[in-house]
Amino acid sequence: MNDHETGRPAPVPDPRKAATDPFVEHRRLLFGTAYHMLGSVVDAEDILQDAWLKWHAVDQELVEHPKAYLVRTVTNLALNRLTSARAVRETYVGPWLPEPLITPSNAVEETEMAETVSTAMLVVLETLNPTERVVFVLRDVFGYSYAEIGGFLDRPAATVRQISRRARSHVQARRPRFEADDEARQEVTERFMAACHGGDLNALMELLAPEVTLWNDGGGIVTAARRPLHGPDHVARWILGVMAKPLSAGIRLEPAVVNGELSVVGMMGDDLVGALTYDIHDGRIENIRFQVNPRKLNGIQAAGATDSPTPNTKGPR
C-alpha cells in the first residue's frame, strides 16, 4: 500500500492493534459502500486505501464516532471519484458494464444481496447522477437515516429526502423486474453452457427471450461488440461465433455466483477471461451482460477475501 500524496509506502498497522482498529472492524461495510457507489472492485479498494490513510492521519482519540467518520470519508471519496468518472465514461469504447464480483456460493440464496449488488442493479445505478447514487446506496441499501446521510454530505435532511425520493423513483422505473428461483436459474444456466459448448444454435435460441439484448464490455482493449445486440438469432449467432474463434479455443464455461446471482464465467486454464450475467423471465434469458475487459476482470476477487458488501437486510432505520 502506498501513500498517494508522497509516493512512500503507507504505514503498516500494528498487528497487535488491528483487532481493535475501527477501520478493520468496519472494512466489510466500507468496501460494500464503495463498491455499490462505484461498481468497481479496483476503485473500491483504492477508496479504502485512501480512507485508511486519512483515518491514520487524524487524532483518533478526538473522533467520537469512528464508524460514522469512516463511512463519511468513504462516501465523499467515492462521490469525488464518481464525478470524475462520468467524464471518462463519456469517451468509453463500447458499452460500459460494472466490474463483476465473485460472491460466495451461499449468496445466491440471499435475496437482499442479489437485488442490491446484481450487475443489473449496478447498471441502473449508473444512470443516476453522483449525488443521487450516493444517497440511494446509503439510504436504500445500507439503511442510513436522512439525518445521518445529511451529516455525511453536509446537506439538510430535508434536501437528502428529496434526493432520495427522486433517485428511488428513477431506480424503480428502470430496475429489472425478472425473478427466477434457484432451481430454475440453475437449469437455464446448465442448458446455456451445454448449448454454447456444443455449438447448438437451435438449443441456444430456444433459451433466449424474443426481446433478448446483449451488452458486451471490452473497453476497446479486446475484441467486443461495440453496440448492443438484439434478438435471439443475432445474439445466439454472435455468442457461438465467439466460441468458435481460434482465440477462444480451450475456453470453458463454468457456473459461478457473480454479484449475488448464479451466472457463468469463461476460463482459459486458471485464468478468468469473461463473466456473463443475465436476467431470466419465464424460463428464458432476457438480458445478457458480458464482461471481457481484462482490466475489470483483473480486479475480480472472492468476497471472502475482499470483505465484500454486506447490505443491511433490515431496511432503512
Q: Going across the biggest sheet, name each strand in turn.
A: 2-1-6-5-4-3
CATH topology of the domain at 182-297: Nuclear Transport Factor 2, Chain: A
At the first level of CATH, the class of the domain at 182-297 is Alpha Beta
Summarize the helix and strand pattern as letters.
HHHHHHHHHHHHEEHEEEEHH
Strand percent estimate: 5-15%
- Estimated structural class: alpha+beta
- Our count of helices gives 15
Give the oligomeric state of the chains in this entry, treating copies of one chain as homo and distinct chains as hetero: single chain
Q: How many angstroms does the end-to-end distance come to?
A: 35 Å
Biggest sheet details: 6 strands, mixed
Reported CATH architecture of the domain at 182-297: Roll
- Shape, per Cα inertia axes: elongated
Helix content: 40-55%
- Low-confidence parts: 1-10, 105-114, 301-317
Q: Radius of gyration from the CA trace? A: 21 Å
Average pLDDT reading = 84
Domain SnoaL-like: 190-267
Organism: Actinomadura coerulea
Domain RNA polymerase sigma factor 70 region 4 type: 121-170
GO molecular function: DNA binding; sigma factor activity
Question: What can you see in these coordinates?
Answer:
- Helices cover 49% and strands 15% of the residues.
- The longest helix has 24 residues, at 66-89.
- It is α+β, with helices and mostly antiparallel strands and 317 residues long.
- The chain has a six-stranded mixed β-sheet with strand order 2-1-6-5-4-3.
- The protein contains 15 helices and six strands.
- Interacts transiently with the RNA polymerase catalytic core formed by RpoA, RpoB, RpoC and RpoZ (2 alpha, 1 beta, 1 beta' and 1 omega subunit) to form the RNA polymerase holoenzyme that can initiate transcription.
- GO terms for molecular function: DNA binding; sigma factor activity.
- Belongs to the sigma-70 factor family. ECF subfamily.
- Residues 121-170 form the RNA polymerase sigma factor 70 region 4 type domain.
